[in-house]
Amino acid sequence: MMRPMETRHVLLFGFVAALFIGTGFVQSWNTALTIFNMGLISAIMALGVNMQWGYAGLFNVGVMGFVALGGLAAVLISMPPVETAWAAGGVRILIGLLLGAVTIIGAILIYTRMPPGRARTLTMLVVLIGGFFVFRAVFDGGVEAVESIDPASTGYLGGLGLPVLVAWPVGGLLAAGAAWLIGKTALGLRSDYLAIATLGIAEIIISILKNEDWLARGVKNVTGIPRPVPYEVDLQEAPWFLDLVTRLGADYVTFSSIFVKLCYAALFITVLAILIWLVEKAWNSPWGRMMRAIRDNEVSAAAMGKDVKARHLQVFVLASAICGLAGAMMTTLDSQLVPGTYIPLRFTFLVWVMVIVGGSGNNWGAVLGGFLIWWLWIQVEPLGLMLMQGVTAGMADGSWLREHLLDSAAYMRLFTMGLVLLLVLRFSPRGLIPER
Amino acid sequence: MDFLNAIVVLMNFVIIPATAYGAQLALGALGVTLIYGILRFSNFAHGDTMAFGAMVTILFTWAFQAAGVSLGPLPTALLALPLGIVVTGALLVGTDRLVYRFYRQQKAKPVIFVIASLGVMFIMNGIVRFIIGVDDQRFADGERFIISARTFRDLTGLDEGLAFRTTQGLTIVVALIAVVLLFWFLGRTRTGKSMRAFSDNEDLALLSGINPERVVLITWLIVAALATTAGVLYGLDKSFKPFTYFQLLLPIFAAAIVGGLGNPIGAILGGFVIAFSEVGITYAFRRVVGYLLPEDMQPEGLLQLLSTDYKFAVSFGILLLVLLFKPTGIMKGKSV
Fold first, then answer.
1. Where along chain B do its domains lie?
2. What ipTM was assigned to the predicted interfaces of this complex?
């Protein structure tokens, strides 16, 4: 099924592997594995973006939002439910949300069923405004009750208490739902509109996560999300583990943390392998050929009887689900949901750099880009600091300019990423591993 | 009396701030819409161009302040603004030469330009943070108020004060001047007319001997002037923080699309639609209504439709509505 890779591509993967192994020897294996695990997640995000951009030519700049929804799923599925909060106002919140949904569905029904005219507009306005106030009246009370229950440690409804692995597909589903909503409105219009709409939904998802304390504690963060892998402290007491450590002759504290990271890596590699198999299948299938035909010439594809908008919606939703999945995996890896850390440069634009650099339209390229750019993103900061120290070495200690330059070294990252993106786009637009 | 008080509260917290904010958004949206009309892509680096222009102006302002130069009651930043525009113009023209011109010659798809503008955004973002950092910078000086709340109360004898800040008045006046100049330029000068012709029909314009590179150059210079002005006014009115300028991208795009992309009058209208909805929907109307209703019917809640944390949701909601029902915008913009 999969075609053999060219030597050049194998060498490229070898080079990236060497970067990680080098990190292991020079810095530490713990660091190398930490970067590698996030590299795996980045590769999955890049696969999602590549599906939208490489397969279908859709420009999604809301990756951050879908990733964050995946993170939310991890909280909602795996945290234990807060019984007292449910008793205080959980049902009321649910009823409120239900009323809100009913209002919107009602308005849509009125819009589609009633004949156009002033009567329709008025009825719709009455339903929307009336529904909004009813929704707020029911919903606000519930929120207040829930958030007042022990706000320092809970103050939210909690989750379902299920195994965290269940959250991964659920994260995909949540992201798919949001993507459907956006795709339905913005697809079929100019390509830039999708970009702007996705940019907007991402910001809104983040502000919901930051402000709706009843949902996931807002900026107070949810910590201690259950793990799918053993805890270090448990390992350090398990006889089989200590036995293994003595046989390997390693330090048991360091090795326990490496072992946990290896477990995560195994899980992530499994997911990545399944995904690559699936997306490669899709790429080589008639469906994949149809998507490329639509991407390359929408007019002629439409003339051949392909429903361009429906296919775009399909691929947009599927690929966003992959981003949601990656988001759930990331939150599982971190064991915490911190809405404040979701910034578009890191979660949207960096993933784009990965895809463009790796090679848009090639899944292996996207994976390669994911690992390479993530490694760079982590390592540019110390390198930038070193560079600045070199540049400022001749200056007097404590001089204003020297301090300023050293302080600003952190922002080298943004600059470097922008430069890499522009250079690759200009001089090697097909990326490191081009589309076949 | 109560009725007047209600009006004063409304003016103070909704109408004046929204007008100033609307003027800032309109200037931003004009820049986006011009680039869209002439170069035919959505410039994602626009927010950071505003930040860059504002930053350069701030640096010059500090230099003036250090040298003891000031404009008396007006902020010194006004004096530094032309210098900021010149530097930003140079940066934009340089970016065009290094980045966008290549894709223009290649006749690349618009979405490639958008991706290139993302790269430019990263770099500008990096430059701004590198030079001035990520923190809030205040650079407003001169007289703080045209009318302060207390003066107003003393003058009128009302319970509520009306504060009209210099920066708000300045925003409205400067934006008005900028818009008048822009429309005079587009409507009356030869270059302006050639720009409009180029925007309407590129091939026809080329046939009639319009030099496209010159049109593009002038567009970037105008965009630099608009973006720097918008950035400085926003910074004077609120405060300068690089990240908020990135976040302005959404309301600015929403304003440009709501008005009709590529349509300058639409951009101004869109700016005010977005600003008034944002401020109006997130303002707590309790005090206004409190003055209007009799004693025994005082409202219990804040009468706030959405919390201010969701102000971006407002521009986004309007954007979605426009995309759903009228994708070309209020003032019929470019093709869908």
1. 2-325
2. 0.87
